[in-house]
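Structural biology now treats backbone shape like a language. To illustrate, our science desk offers a sequence and the tokens encoding its fold:
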Amino acid sequence: MRISDLLKVKGSGVITAQSHITMRQVLKQMIDNKVGSVVVLDKDNNPIGIFTERDTIRMVYKQDGRDWQSKAISEFMTTEIMIGVPDDDVEYVMALMTDNRFRHVPIMSEGKLIGLISIGDIVKSLLKNIKIENRYLSDYISGKYPA
């Protein structure tokens, strides 16, 4: 299965933000959209980072009670991101996520951001495939198919 297959089911909507917006603004955006990450774009709409719930925890800890709400997300976003493409194999992207301990991969095509895949999207897809295979095998074993 390819990433493009996941995007067909999930859709291509991605919550994005410019690097200068404040922490308060990005957290509101995440809460309002019920997402765990926001892809951070430069002025030309190219991904330059990602801000996640994990970044929020690190930020709160590092600020140690100091004002953080008015600071720009560029101070706290993760800048080392890996980008996927629609032709990537789902298992490959899952291995990247697992090996590098991150949960979100922006998907690019022809220089444009076209989606975001989370580890939850991958797990959901794999579970669906396992359920289908189990059903076919159960039906086959129980003799529902002619010999």
